[in-house]
Design goal:
By secondary structure, the chain is mainly beta. 9% of the residues lie in helices and 39% in strands.
Length: 560
């Protein structure tokens, strides 16, 4: 029987006083250096053909940040008040828990927002860390007199997710040419040691060399403080855009860590695609806990001349150390065919030939969902590491509009597909994918008239082998506009599913309000996790929600 684990229901009783305001005045030299840095970033982005620009995920927000910098540069030389920090935790009476501290969101600007979104959650015992994109962290670090700029934030719980403390920006490092761009991924190996990955860009003004990379950050105090970001892979920032990162830790050897990403390679110098654009799904690994990183393993690649592309890799490691990678393949982006593909390798080995898990009918008009926000990559993967009879099973979930398609004169391909959440499983290491796709959401698309979108699913397995998936859901709005949060659970490897609504209310579509964020962005994923140490059954996941106005915030929900 499912049991929901919620916070105490005494609302916002723990409100405490704010720290005294701290004033910061940004030196002219720092403003000049930041402007040069953002100019470099835009120069690299503008080298890419428009259809490849459209396929960028996290870097699309980086481009927006670079574009708006001139608008705020003039005011940076004036004294500013740092964003206040709340000393106490906040509890939400709805049964979901506030993760970020939204009471400080307007301290620096009435126009910037701020937006917190695109979450990743890790749990080791009673210690929980949630990472998220945070435009407030960007502005807060921008106003610092030293150090880099960060678009990533985090919150920490030491009581299994009953309350959270917003710790502010993830440390961008002392070098003020560092640019942490977001797309967070969080994991842990014990209650003290947590890892955080995100897109990263660096620049050396002395040599003019820019890099595009993935930053790896480590905390040894349960996520409360973070060390300087380490570079996992170094690409020429004038010829590559590293995008859509993910990472996983080997449960059989926690020193083995793997980071996957998409390499948008417009150098024209690759062996596979000479004088052509190249998409690459690549994985880079560390065998010493993230201190050093090896050379990239190319899992899949496509050349521009083929009109095929790749994006949205996910990596997960099995109990025996096998590295599993899933990603989306597409033709004639965004309106052509899409497929969910899979490969695996063992440390030091070569990736297996790609297996087509299933075809994907992209939702909406293949790029936008109703409300005009982008939603063009929509999958997640996990591996059962429970030690039960189902250990080793590989589970994938994705949003798919195959069951309900209607004509739409304003759509890219003149039709609109209403997403459902689909699920498949493999019990033979990804060679075959068992039963046909199962629908996770329990409602049925109406045969006549309008449909409903269900999108951005996240999947996890708990220590008992139970599988859970959570997603955004519009089933209760006949006009397919308002959004709710739903989850489903399965005790038979995903063959059948229960459903329940998360007590987080209902909210409308909201985007384009925060001037620091891409105007068509409303987040691209939200993670779900279980206890890595396997001491507690059940699940916890954070997600984006709009409460009390237009400003997106992050909440967390636990259930069994």
């Amino acid at each position: 029987m499912r049991r929901r684990v919620t916070a105490s229901l005494f609302g916002f009783a723990l409100m405490a006083s704010l720290t005294a305001p701290a004033f910061a005045q940004v030196p002219a030299a720092r403003i000049k250096a930041l402007q040069a840095r953002f100019n470099q970033y835009l120069k690299a982005y503008n080298k890419m053909p428009s259809k490849y620009q459209k396929a960028l995920d996290g870097n699309a927000n980086a481009v927006q940040l670079a574009r708006v910098f001139p608008q705020i540069a003039a005011s940076l030389s004036k004294p500013h008040v740092s964003r206040a920090v709340l000393k106490a935790d906040l509890l939400a009476a709805s049964g979901t828990v506030n993760v970020n501290k939204n009471s400080t969101d307007l301290d620096l600007s009435a126009f910037a927002g701020f937006t917190q979104s695109e979450t990743s959650t890790a749990r080791c015992g009673s210690q929980v860390v949630v990472g998220f994109n945070d435009s407030g962290s960007y502005l807060q670090t921008l106003l610092n007199t030293t150090g880099g700029v960060s678009f990533s934030g985090a919150a920490v719980s030491s009581n299994s997710g009953a309350t959270f403390k917003d710790i502010g920006p993830i440390n961008p490092g002392a070098n003020f040419n560092n640019f942490i761009i977001g797309d967070p991924g969080v994991s842990c190996i014990n209650s003290s040691t947590f890892f955080y990955t995100q897109i990263f860009s660096g620049y050396d003004p002395n040599t003019g060399v820019a890099t595009s990379s993935v930053a790896f950050s480590k905390s040894t105090d349960g996520g409360n403080t973070w060390g300087e970001p380490a570079v996992t892979v170094n690409k020429d920032g004038f010829a590559h855009q590293v995008d859509k990162t993910w990472h996983a830790v080997d449960p059989s050897n926690p020193n083995n860590i793997y980071v996957s990403y998409t390499d948008f390679d417009f150098s024209g110098t690759s062996v596979t695609c000479p004088n052509d654009f190249r998409y690459g799904i690549e994985v880079v690994g560390s065998s010493d806990g993230g201190s050093t990183w090896g050379s990239p393993t190319i899992v899949a690649e496509e050349c521009g001349a083929s009109n095929n592309g790749l994006q949205d890799s996910h990596v997960a490691v099995s109990s025996n150390g096998t590295v599993n990678v899933a990603w989306e393949w597409f033709n004639n982006f965004p309106i052509g065919a899409h497929q969910l593909r899979y490969s695996s390798f063992t440390p030091g080995g070569s990736p297996s030939p790609a297996v087509v898990v299933d075809s994907i009918q992209a939702g909406g008009d293949s790029y936008y969902l109703q409300g005009s926000f982008r939603d063009f990559i929509d999958l997640d993967m996990t591996v059962d590491r429970s030690g039960t009879a189902s250990d080793g099973a590989i589970y994938v979930t994705w949003a798919d509009g195959r069951d309900k398609i209607i004509p739409d004169v304003f759509a890219f391909d003149n039709e609109y597909a209403f997403d459902d959440v689909l699920f498949r499983a493999s019990t033979d290491g990804g060679q075959t994918w068992g039963f046909a796709p199962r629908k996770v959401n329990s409602d049925i698309q109406p045969r006549v008239g309008y449909g409903h979108d269900h999108y951005q699913p996240g999947v996890a397995v708990d220590p008992t082998g139970k599988v859970a998936v959570c997603w955004y859901d519009r089933r209760n709005d006949p006009k397919n506009n308002n959004i709710q949060r739903y989850c489903g659970e399965s005790t038979n490897g995903g063959f059948t599913w229960s459903n329940f609504q998360v007590p987080a209310g209902t909210w409308p579509v909201s985007h384009g309000e925060d001037q620091l964020v891409n105007s068509i962005y409303e987040g691209d994923y939200d993670g779900l996790t279980s206890d890595t140490l396997k001491t507690t059954n059940g699940f916890i996941g954070a997600f984006g929600v709009i409460t009390g106005g237009w400003n997106p915030d992050v909440k967390a929900y636990s259930f069994q």
